[in-house]
């Protein structure tokens, strides 16, 4: 049911962590994968090499998703190289942990540009291809702070909450074309923060989770694969948490 043979996927921020795990699992299920990166070319090309080594098809694409014109060129390149697009995973994000009272408009802009406008730009440019597919999928990744709020993450939470509303709206608008749009909200993933900070605070952090550990990229990729496949064809407009029991709302 999670067979993705013949499908083409774009994963933003696909060179590292959760994005890399998603790329690899989609490829394992048979999808051709466009691995987007902003600055980590070596990482993205490493993911491509791993996929190709196991007989899969993948290519790295450099693009700042906050720039609408650059995104349009990337989508056009994917169409030219692969023939279309069936799956969009809005994974790339940028979040600064800082008290709201100490944050600046420059901080706000950087996070909103990547987290909200990035999803807007990619969804808008990919939309015609996803609708033409007849089985298009949009899956947006975010932190659970976008659902329940969190001190120090006000801007990132607000930007990602906007993405949740975008997914729900696109689920309604594009559903008649067979497109589904869902959000996955995450607890703290091991690879998403500075390793030294995680180790210094691990004992305190894990106490917030019903399952007493932090998340791994491998915890996220299976749900993305499900939603991208025919098995997820009747799931749309939803926010699904993969969070070890951090929040249960």
From TrEMBL:
UniProt-listed Gene3D superfamilies: NAD(P)-binding Rossmann-like Domain
Top-rank taxon: Bacteria
Domain Ketoreductase: 7-220
UniProt xrefs under Pfam families: adh_short_C2
Recorded family membership: Belongs to the short-chain dehydrogenases/reductases (SDR) family.
Protein name, as recorded: NAD(P)-dependent dehydrogenase (Short-subunit alcohol dehydrogenase family)
Organism field: Bradyrhizobium yuanmingense
